[in-house]
Write a structure and sequence with these properties.
The strands form two sheets. Strands 2, 4, 5, 6, 9, 10 and 11 form a seven-stranded mixed sheet that branches. A four-stranded antiparallel sheet has the order 1-3-8-7, with no helix packed on it. The protein is built from no helices and eleven strands. It is mainly β. The protein is 0% helix and 48% strand.
Length: 126
């Protein structure tokens, strides 16, 4: 098991940027595939971005391609989500997720993950 703590959320105007961070406990962070999901009020949890153990493979939801970038620093046990050109429809609680894997897979469904952070609120005003 790994504990995940998100930070970096907040209120930003449309067109602005935010960088979310997710800090993981433990010394085996490099063994975990990581992902970001979001959930708006009254909606299902939605895939945003995911990254392989090494960071060499990434996947994005179509709605964020070209605007969001996922990255990780295994030396700091942290995964990031750089969000640019934010839109009001990006408003949601953003969750970090992790799953220990033994290959370089990228996991894009919430059922694939078994470790979740508490979430951080992102609000984009128009």
């Amino acid at each position: 098991q790994v504990q995940l703590v998100e930070s970096g959320g907040g209120l930003v105007q449309a067109g602005g940027s935010l960088r979310l961070s997710c800090a993981a406990s433990g010394r085996t962070f490099s063994m975990y595939a990581m992902g970001w999901f979001r959930q708006a009020p009254g909606k299902e949890r939605q895939f945003v971005a995911a990254i392989s153990r090494s960071g060499g493979s990434k996947n994005y939801a179509d709605s964020v391609k070209g605007r969001f970038t996922i990255s990780r620093d295994n030396g700091k046990n942290t995964v990031y989500l750089q969000m640019n050109s934010l839109k009001p429809e990006d408003t949601a609680v953003y969750y970090c997720a992790a799953r220990a894997v033994n290959t370089g897979v990228v996991l894009t469904t919430f059922q694939s993950y078994d470790n979740w952070g508490q979430g951080t609120q992102v609000t984009v005003s128009s």
